[in-house]
Amino acid sequence: MSERGFAFTIDATAGAARAGVFMTPHGAVETPTFMAVGTQATVKTLDPRELREAKMQMILANTYHLHLRPGEEIVRQMGGLHRFMQWDGPILTDSGGFQVFSLETLRTVTEEGVEFRSHIDGSRRFFSPESVVAIQRALGADVIMQLDHVVPGQTDAGLASEASERSVRWLERCVLAFERNEERGTRNLQALFPIVQGGIHPLLRRQAAQAIRSMRSFDGYAIGGLSVGEAKSDMYAMLEVVHEELPQDRPRYLMGVGFPEDLIEGVARGVDLFDCVAPTRNGRQGTAFTTDGKLNVRRAELRSDPRPLDEACECSTCTRFSRAYIRHLFASDEVLGLRLLSLHNVHFLTAIMRRARRAILEGDFQAWSRDWLQRYHSRPAPVS
Description:
Elements: E1 7-14, E2 17-24, E3 27-31, E4 33-37, H1 48-53, E5 59-62, H2 63-68, H3 72-77, H4 81-85, E6 91-94, H5 97-101, E7 107-109, E8 114-117, E9 124-127, H6 129-139, E10 143-145, H7 157-183, E11 191-193, E12 195-196, H8 202-215, E13 221-223, H9 232-245, E14 252-254, H10 260-268, E15 273-276, H11 278-284, E16 287-290, E17 293-296, H12 316-320, H13 323-331, H14 335-362, H15 365-377
Parallel strand pairs: 4-5, 4-15, 5-6, 6-10, 10-11, 12-13, 13-14, 14-15
Antiparallel strand pairs: 1-2, 2-3, 7-8, 8-9, 16-17
Helix pairs in contact: 6-7, 7-8, 8-9, 10-14, 10-15, 11-14, 13-14, 14-15
């Protein structure tokens, strides 16, 4: 274990898939696992106690949004993110790079960093590699991310190369800022993760991973710039490329990916940590994840359906409420419907990861994942 309280052990493998344990200052995380996204220090509509009951181990918060409100100094004054949001488990903070680059016409990229306008009040702001590290230090998450340059999934090799190389240069500055912070005696028990960029171009992904590895040893490595418009086959191919280039003894975090089939395909390609807004966003929009595919709870045929959302699910939504009741809540614009569906979706994804881990440990991951995906993809048309 590192002096900051981080370690990663692998208990079993199945091809590229791994069952491991990621140790952090706020506890152990059994991998593979899914992290719910608490963008603004809250997983939308859900109480931290409900997340624990759903066996959530680690959650994510966002630097961009928390910088804008309430501001990192307020969070610091309140005792850091863990105390502020009453979550005692591990937390990861995204650098805000994806959010800033999503602003398009509201931002300007230079070698120094990114100038942007707040989507809240239009005020002018600036993110540099150094300032992003400082903000995340103040927030106090266990794992913090470098500032990276994110480009759309179908970006050509020229622009993808420029963004990837800039991300590596920014990483060097993030590392220096991270280490200076420790030297000044203001060290938090934190780990800095680099981000491998490179679009859908294998050579760029390899070059980025190699450049990052040559810089220093990190407690974990992130894979960014995927699930941003490229074909799923391209995403899976890039995971296979990166798997060969990153250290085998460190956790890999695939950023922003969280649909059920993508979790299983990612685990099969060596990914340990995932995050995505998909379970809560889909839940608020009336879509439930099930083992037979996605289910639109607003469908008329559910009006008198007594079954749970998923008969195999053990979440409190499925063990107490019928499809008919949940459809009624959405038809009546009742907030409880959003909560119940969000809770189910989060529980569903954490359960998939627990089952994948067990399959790896028991030596039947390939057969289990094949059967699970076959059922999921062969769902009858009316379900979705």
